[in-house]
Amino acid sequence: MRILLAVDGSDQSYEATRALAHLRKAELVLVLHVLDVPEPAYPTMVPEAARDLYATVERAMREDGERLLKRVASLLPMNTGPVTTRLQVGRPADVILSTAQEERVDLILVGARGVSPVRELVLGSVSHRLITYASCPTLIVSTALRSLRHLLLPLEGQYDAEGAVRFLQTKPFREAMEVTLLKVVPFGQPPWPVSVQVAESMEKEALERARDFLDEVASRLSAPDYRTKVVAMVGTPAVAILQEAAKLKPDLILMGSSGRRGVTRFVLGSVAHAVVHRTPCPVLVFR
C-alpha cells in the first residue's frame, strides 16, 4: 500500500501522522507539505518589489516547511515502511490530488481542522475536496485515533458494498476488526393513502430486506480478520449514521463517497461530507 500523508503543522495533521500506527506496513509513505504562498496584496506596488516580497515570504515558508517535515518524520510510528518527504508550492487540495494521482497512491491520509458551516458551503475545505475528487480512499483524521478495533460501516447499496468489500479484502489495518454494518432505510409515509397497519408492514418489509442485504455483505468478510454484526434502521442517512456513531463510539467510520458535483455539491452536500464534518471520530472514505 502506497500512502500519501499530507501535513500542515496543525494538531490534526500530527494525529494523522500517529494514525499510521494502525495501518499495515506501507510500500511507501510520502509525506507532503504544500506551501500556499500568498500573493502581495498591494495593487500599487511595483512589479520588482512585489516579486522580491513574494520571494522573501516563500523562502521563509520553505524554511518552516522543511522543519515541519523533519519533525513529522521524527514522529512517524515504527514499521510504517519506507518514507520520503516532499515540499511543493500551490493550492493544498490541488497539489494533494495531483500528487496522489502521479504517485499512484492507494490511500490519502490528512488531518481535518474543520471550517464553519457557511465557509464550508461557499469555499469548501481541503478534506471536502479530497473526498469529492480523490481517485483513491481518503482517511480524514479530526481527532486522535488511539485504537482501531471497531469500524462502523454504513452502506447505501450494492455499489457501496462492492467498494467496501474490495477495500477491506486488501487488509489495510494491522489488527483484526469488529465491523458493524449499518443500513439506513429512508422510509417515509407512502404518497398514497394507506392504513397505519399497511404502512408499518411496508416499513417492516423494508427493514427485513435491508438486514438480508447486510447479512450477504457480512458473509463476504472473512473471519478472523473481521467479526461482523448488522444494524438496519429507518431514518435520514446522515443523521442516523451520526446517531449510531454517538451510541456505538466506533474507532473509525468507513464509508463510500456519493458526493455530488457542481453547484449541488455546495448547496446540498452529501452524506459522506456531512458525516466527515460532524462525527467525533476519524472517517475513511473509500471508492
Describe the structure concisely:
With 287 residues, the chain is α/β, with parallel strands linked by helices. It has helices at 11-19, 47-75, 92-102, 117-123, 126-133, 158-168, 196-219, 237-248, 262-267, 271-278; strands at 2-6, 28-35, 83-89, 107-111, 138-141, 150-154, 177-185, 226-234, 252-256, 283-286. Helix 1 (11-19) links the parallel strand 1 (2-6) and strand 2.
CATH class of the largest domain: Alpha Beta
CATH architecture of the largest domain: 3-Layer(aba) Sandwich
Instruction: Output mean pLDDT.
Output: 86
One letter per element, helices H and strands E, the order comes to: EHEHEHEHHEEHEHEHEHHE
Return the structural class. alpha/beta
Query: Into which percentage range does the β-strand content fall?
Result: 15-25%
CATH topology of the largest domain: Rossmann fold
Radius of gyration: 22 Å
Taken from the alpha-carbon principal axes, the silhouette is elongated
> How would you characterize the largest beta sheet?
10 strands, mixed
The CATH superfamily of the largest domain appears as HUPs
Terminal CA distance: 15 Å
Strand arrangement, major sheet: 3-2-1-4-5-10-9-6-7-8
Task: Report the total helices.
Answer: 10
Into which percent range does the helicity of residues fall?
Answer: 40-55%
